[in-house]
Specification:
mainly alpha; 2 domains; 16 helices; elongated; ARM-like
Length: 264
């Protein structure tokens, strides 16, 4: 018993023989120390080939939520060279719901890893809903050469809600840089932030009253209905699918990444 046997059974999860895969599933499923099993998954993950890596990430997602340090260990693979594994890392991070990784994710966005990965990080931050990221994300609004990132951040700030995001969105929208994002997205972000406040529209009217620039800029603006929101951190619904197809993935293969796949 112990780690070596756990490691052996983990590797058998992708054994060509169905009988061996079933044996491994039963062993790992019944093993009494679940923390030890999750740590086994995490230790095997860095060197695992794609099929096993994706399966391990699914297992970690199922059993690792609420366990200290799990998300941080998964985040170590956030630059994995395999596109499918890297994509599954982001899916797992969002679902683990560990705010410990919120600020490291902001740092990752600022490291310029590429547009798709920046937007995936924003999706994780949306799922984590951590107000601490507001100051760091606000700094990236100056990156006018990356309009899709800026657009995603503006919408994300609105979805986080609160007075600070509302102030950031309003002042940015009224600045020259605000022209790079469609007004519909900006107004929805504002509406989301306002809706999160107990004072609601009364607070917004007070903000405009105290700032003539904002009052003039938003004087004829009509806030949209936000139930449900029309936008998200991605520029359109099939953005990630298009990114995957550009890398040779089929639609079914892409969608499988989002679901738990029980080995047979």
């Amino acid at each position: 018993m112990g780690n070596e046997e756990i490691f052996t059974m983990i590797r058998q999860l992708v054994d060509p023989a169905p009988r061996e895969r079933k044996k491994a599933l039963e062993y790992l499923g019944k093993y009494p120390d679940r923390n030890e099993v999750v740590q086994g998954y995490l230790l095997q993950l860095p060197q695992a080939e794609r099929p096993l890596a994706i399966l391990l990430l699914q297992k970690i997602e199922q059993e690792g939520r609420g366990k200290s340090g799990v998300a941080a260990q998964v985040m170590a693979l956030i630059r994995h060279p395999d596109y499918q594994v890297r994509s599954r890392v982001f899916i797992c991070l969002g679902r683990l719901q560990d705010r410990f990784i919120s600020l490291p994710l902001v740092d990752f966005v600022g490291s310029n890893p590429g547009e798709e990965w920046q937007l995936r990080a924003l999706e994780c931050l949306y799922l984590l809903h951590d107000q601490r990221v507001v100051p760091g994300l606000s700094l990236f609004l100056r990156q006018t050469d990356n309009p899709l990132l800026v657009r995603g951040i503006i919408w994300l700030l609105g979805s986080l809600g609160g007075k600070e995001p509302l102030d950031v969105i309003a002042r940015w929208a009224a600045s020259p840089e605000g022209r790079i994002v469609k007004s519909e997205v900006i107004l929805e972000a504002l509406a989301l932030a306002i809706a999160s406040l107990e004072e609601g529209m009364a607070y917004w009217e007070e903000v405009k009253k105290e700032n003539p620039v904002l009052d003039r800029f938003f004087r004829y603006s009509i806030l949209p209905e936000i139930d449900p929101p029309h936008f998200f951190v991605y520029p359109y619904p099939d953005y990630l699918l298009d990114q995957a197809k550009a890398r040779g993935m089929g639609g079914k293969e892409f969608k499988k990444l989002f679901y738990w796949d029980r080995p047979t």
